Amino acid sequence: MQPPFISLLLCLGLLAPLAADDKPIIDTSKSPKAILHGVPVSAVKLGDGFWTERRRVNEEVSLPTMFELLEQNGILDNFRRAAGTKDVPRRGPVYTDSDIYKWLEADAFVLQNHDNPKLRALGEGAIDTIVAAQQPDGYLNTLYVKENASKRHTRMADNHELYCLGHMLQAAVAWKRATGETKLLDSGLKMVAYLLANFGPDKKPLMEGHPEVEMALIECYREVGDKRYLELAHYLLESDPRIKLDKWSIVYHNTGRPFWERTILEGHAVRAMYACSGATDYYLETGDRRYMDALDRLWQDLTQRKMYITGGVGSRESGEAFGEPYELPNQLAYTESCAAIGEMFWQWRMLQATAEAKYMDVFERALYNGVNSGLSLKGNLYCYRNPLELIGDPEDRIRNPWYDTTCCPPNIQRVLASLPGYMYSTSTDALYVHLYHAGTLAWHLEDGTPLEVRQETNYPWSGAVTVRVNPAAEKRFTLNLRIPAWASGATLAVNGTAQPAPRPAAYAAIQRSWKRGDVVKLTLPIAPRLTAANPLVRDDVGKLAVEYGPLVYCMEGLDQPAPENVFAWTLDLRVPGAASPAAFQAQWEKDLLGGVVTLTHQAVHSPAELAREPLYAPFTAGPLNQPAGVVKLIPYYTFDNREPTTMQVWVPYTR
Ligand SMILES: [Zn+2]
Fold it and tell me: What CA–CA distance (Å, rounded) separates 50 from 591?
């Protein structure tokens, strides 16, 4: 819950946003193919609830402590070294400049929502440090300076120079939108100008071994209107035919051939998701149908064959890569936090292009589960991998304060800081509500009519949502409320009058003349439900997952009666009704894991001492006479926040 003093400060307007430009996270207001247009992060103030607590931890713990770690690990010193103000060796991997950029972008999103003088000062100092490292010709990267200056762009598949630039440009645009200051953006565009002067179809060839800069260049195009940025993004998405890569590299790096030729998701998962995001941005600006056709194919591959139930993607540690169709191992799931985040970015862009709720279903699945799991409840530990099964090995440190490759922590930070900007969109004559959370939108319809929308809800713990619609003047428009795919049986009423039953996986469109004080009541059926995987997912055969609204649940050993090993337990579905929501007990436990709804269900267990059992034994047909008990499940995002223990998302069952 939000501390009372924060609420007080918000009421008094003392934490008002700095935002100089009221622009959304991606500004599709002039994008020819965008049906939807986001609202600024500054336009949404969240009330008490699920994400407010996560965002408070992000701002008060994660961002300040990560800045200290970036300093301690020499990331800012690398810039001081490049600027000639500190004589130290360069530290960290080739791509580590991007870590401070992602942190800065997170900081900018905080400041877009409300002022935070301490974080603002840290950001301003970091920007000064970064900009001082820019070389006279515009080049800015801490690896290829001084004795390494001659190596610029010599290992384009692996050196991440454009990847780092992409993160810099995204931070710079967000910072300008937060503060009006263009120092970082001017510097980033100077590096772009250096690239345009030296590389391109009629100059030296250029490639990006880790897609990212495409998204950033297109956002710069949206911000300052220079079409050369869009063209450079297109040049990179098409790949320069003069650069010949081998087959492995084309797959792994997600580059080396025109993006639109791709038919399946393969190779490095983060690269693939960022490439899809940049390609969708390109479609939004140009309407190039080849790009959308490819994106449709890839989206089918994602959602039908390659995405975990948590929204995680990237099954394999080797190459941090997508696997074959249905290759979704639980314990060995690589599921890098950044990959699920890239998947969210892609869904958001597809949503702007189509207004189809199916993209927000994937977005919400990743957000609440496979991304949210990446930050510990206290805000100081991060997951790089987000597996769906743990064997409880104390050496298996799944949450850490720092990684040598620390891409994931500041990526999670920028998602949480920007979250209010993902809750609503507008279209020509409509407002869209994508996510449910207590809070207030203060924005306007696209014809300029000021509009306040107030949500009252305890989602995702409860499915009751009250939406108060307050246009400045009576106005006819469509209010589109997202009905999640799992929400069969949702009900809707306007000013007490029941509306037709809304369809799941769609937006419920309420078109009417809205006036101040109108009230919409949406009831989403949040109840425990059992989900089966396609039988071709071999790891999940004979198992079920438990979900509750948008949340995926898991079992941890230390919540179970003896035997505590989760792998000893099997959900008991033998009695009639045992698979129904009523067979579960849902209980709000305010003192557990920051406050969660836990679910319990009848189960049976194998012998308490599994280790005493033989490795192999004769098969016994017929009903098992196993001891019974009750198992407890917790939301997946809270896993491994206590002591090491066994954990599983997919639970065996007997019926
Ligand atoms: Zn990462």
Answer: 15
Nearest to 493 by CA among 529, 467, 456: 467
* The predicted structure's pLDDT at residue 248: 94
CA of 95 to the centre of ligand 1 (A): 11
Give me the pLDDT at residue 14, please.
43
CA of 406 to the centre of ligand 1 (A): 7
Distance 10 CA to ligand 1 centre (A): 33
Give, as one character, the DSSP assignment of residue 239. -
* Ligand 1 geometric centre to CA of 15 (Å): 31
Q: Are strands 382-383 and 399-400 parallel, antiparallel or unpaired?
A: antiparallel
What does pLDDT average to over the chain? 95
- Is 338 an active-site residue? no
**Alpha carbon of 45 to ligand 1 centroid (Å):** 28
Catalytic residue among 407, 408, 554, 556: 407
Report the DSSP beta bridge partners of residue 268.
321
- 254-273 pLDDT tens trace: 999 999 999 999 999 999 99
Write down the H helix ranges in 155-312.
161-179, 183-198, 213-224, 227-238, 247-253, 269-286, 289-301
- Per the residue annotation, which of 161, 212, 214, 320 is the catalytic one? 320
Measured from the Cβ of residue 247, the count of other Cβ atoms closer than 10 Å reads 8
Neighbours of 405 (CB within 10 A): 14
* 124: annotated active-site residue: no
170: phi then psi, degrees, rounded to nearest 5:
-65, -40
Query: What are the pLDDT digits (tens) for 392-445?
Result: 998 889 999 999 999 999 999 999 999 999 999 999 999 999 999 999 999 999
